[in-house]
# Entry
Amino acid sequence: MRSAISRITEIRNKMKKTDDNNSRQPDLTAALSITGKRPELLAPAGELAGVIGAINAGADAVYLGAEAFSARAYAKNLSSEELIEALDYAHAFDRKIYLACNILLRDHELERIPKILDPLYEQGLDGIIVQDLGLLSFLHKRYPALPLHASTQMSILTAEGAEWLKRMQVSRVVPGRELSLKELKLFKARGIEVECFIHGAMCYSYSGRCLLSSFAGGRSGNRGRCAGPCRQPYRYQKGQACYPLSLKDMWSLHNIGELIDAGIDSFKIEGRMKAPEYTAGVTAVYRKYIDQYLQNGQIHVSPKDEKRLEDLYLRSGKQEGYLHQHNGKDMVSVTSPAYGKVSEEEKKRVSEKYLAEKKAIPVEMHARIFVGEPLQLTVQAKGQKVIQKGAPADAASKRAMSSEQFAEKFSKTGGTLFSVSDCYADTDDLSFVPVSALNDLRRNALDKLKKKLLPYRADLQAGQLPVSEFEKSRGNITPVLRIGLRQTAALQEVLACSEVEGVILDTDLFAENAEALCRQISSSGKKLYLRLPAIIREKDVKTVRECLAAAVHYDMEGIYVNGVDALAIAEDVCPDRNRIGDAGFYVFNQQTEQVALKCLSGYTVSPEKSGKEYRNLTAPERAECVIYGYLPVMYSANCVMKTLNGCDRTSGVYEIADEKGHVFPIMPEHRYCYNTMYNCVPLSLHAELPELREQERAGVYRLEFTIEDRTEIRQILKAYCGLWSKGEWNRPFAAGQTTRGHFLRGAE
# Structure
């Protein structure tokens, strides 16, 4: 066999040759993969058949959900018994199982986690995919040996964010699907595993940053219940209805080589809600070309294999995702969001090849049966051996059992992970043993062999959720009123309100005229807060850092961060300034609140929580409640205007309308190149404000102004300030509709 060094030398020589569009020569990273460091192929499963199909088709690992706590609540998911069976099946063939717990959890749901996870942990669960920071913290404390993966629902878009999670004991990050190949390489430089989607459906919004389904119909994507409003038709300027928010499916088959070269650790196929035939069929194709590249340093994708992928649940076209483009109309399925026709012939082929039968571990058996001696059965597989003994054999009263008969009885291993490859029995031809005794002997031997072959953990410590490290506030909160501004046109009106404690400005708004703005705000006696961009990519990190560094020289009270990326940057640049979690830094339960209170001076209560859930806050004096504003319901790398009419990077707010006539404002963030879509009507908790204050639910109440004109802002300020100081309300919204959001019932 050739040495690894000679193989690497051969590949380097190949790299000097000219390649074409259908083949790419690997660099040293790929060569190292040939020596054993190959990327993991990770397949989805929504049911047990999907697990079997994925493993039979060549997946290195499978990710799946339990019957609760998964971002695919409408998938079949697996029962506790099926999860155990899936773990045993995967581990029998040296594959892995990751459990998706990638939703925001309520307090009572967190209490159920140990009951679900304890047996899976002991059974050797290989990792958990997490969105909720509170759950992440709890899992690390209770299951210290369990690898934790940051879900794409965390919307980690920078290497700084990945580094922050690494300090939180995260071993792997699933970055936003919007990242380019160049950005993904920067993650690898931080020494953390990177898992990337390579195939399947694409959300239009940055994952974990979408509230559209939540506010449109009460079904929250952050709770695993997305209703798919991005797949619905919308109109622009009363034009013909189309599907500007429906992305084509990702298809990275031709990008396999460059992803391997980039050192990506895990290639992830989307599709836990799809049929097992999809899982097995797609896995088999990607398995083929990953191996082909690792073996030959190039791939040649056959039209036959492309057709096979097209025949398995392809949504109106295909595209390679964001690996080489920031956005594009060609990525959007504008005319139809529907899946193409699925080939029943292809489904049948896949089913017969990968789903019809389970794999089994070949086991050798050797039995010894002699009258008066204890029965003995030796079983061995994969280098492990077990010797099982039973009661002494009896002398046959009539006809003794032959060696062949004993071997036949021992070879019946149906329903287990084993199949007998070789079985023989030494006997004196005088013995008789009841079939039940033979079955018990075989069953006990195989159970012991299974325990030797499969991973189990015994380090689980009994205990409940950690007790709060902060005493719950007993009252005496003196709340303040704070204003968030996306424009400075109404700044004077805001500063003139004596009830207002401080003003929150976007960093780019501040950067345009920092000195004059600071002078105005300071002279009014108000406090200045900066809000970092909701979406920060690697190209933006330098700009954000420079803005923060400049702001330190002014009298800045604090910094609003909308996620882990922003928090990591703010901690590094301004470690001595207050940091406040914005609405996108989800605080949904007490465990997450504890995490937030360690790295933030304050946090915004999730807009998906109900008013009743405010009572569970540990430190309400450090909580902030948005009581007015058009709430962002979606952030996207793709540009709706670019898709519909072309983006000239100068346009302001524009609108699209759904079939019910609801109009959604969209604001393009040209400096950072992303879209923010706002809810069709503003949130207004004016009727609930007296109760909120009386029951001391929060320390800060916020009004957020985005698309309102100066006159509207003046009216809203007058109404809220009057309610704040005098308990009066003159109903400025009489001519317009508002919503109380999830305040009454919470998100599903």
User: Anything to note?
Assistant: The longest strand covers residues 418-427. Residues 361-453 form one domain.
